[in-house]
Amino acid sequence: MYKEYKKRILGTIYPFFRKNDYFKDKINQMEDFSSNTRRKFISAMAMGVTASSLSILNNPLYANDKRFFPNQLDGAEDWFKKIKGKHRIVYDGANPNSGLPIIWNWAYYASNNQTGSKDTEITAMTVLRHGATGMAYDNYIWEKYEFGAMFKINDSLTQKPSIRNLYYEPKEGDFPLPEVDGIKKLQARGALFCVCDLATKKLSKTFAAKMKLDPAEVYTEWINHLLPEIQLVPSGVWALGRAQEHGCGYIYAG
Question: Which one of 2, 172, 211, 249 has the largest count of C-beta atoms within 10 Å of its C-beta?
Answer without folding.
Answer: 2
